[in-house]
Write a structure and sequence with these properties.
Largest sheet: 6 strands, antiparallel
Structural class: alpha+beta
Oligomer: single chain
Shape: globular
Distance between the termini: 27 Å
Order of helices and strands: EEEHEEEEEHHEH
Radius of gyration: 13 Å
Strand order of the largest sheet: 1-2-3-9-8-5
Amino acid sequence: MTTKYTEDHEWITVEGDVATVGITHHAQDALGDVVFVELPEVGRAFAQKDVAGVVESVKAAADVYMPVSGTVTEVNEGLRADPSLANSDPLGAGWFFKVKLSEPAQLDALLDKTAYDAFAANQ
């Protein structure tokens, strides 16, 4: 299992050819209390960096970008029912969607935890 990060503050954890995507601690902290999430449609294919969802908080709304190209296989209905999971457990129960990778090599360009932490510290 490998976890990578984007400069748009998404995380992606890969197991085989399926990955789980969510927003980072830094993102949820910057947004404040999350009150609504718009999740992608299961079965929809996205290219890397396409807008795949939206997260709205008491402060702002932000797009959730697809870290890699692929097809959405599952969305977190629990997050739709309780958007605050994106705040309380962003790297666990607050995941957004799962995607079947179509171009796994795109993962190589994403940040590892050390690089992401350094990047986020300068935001």
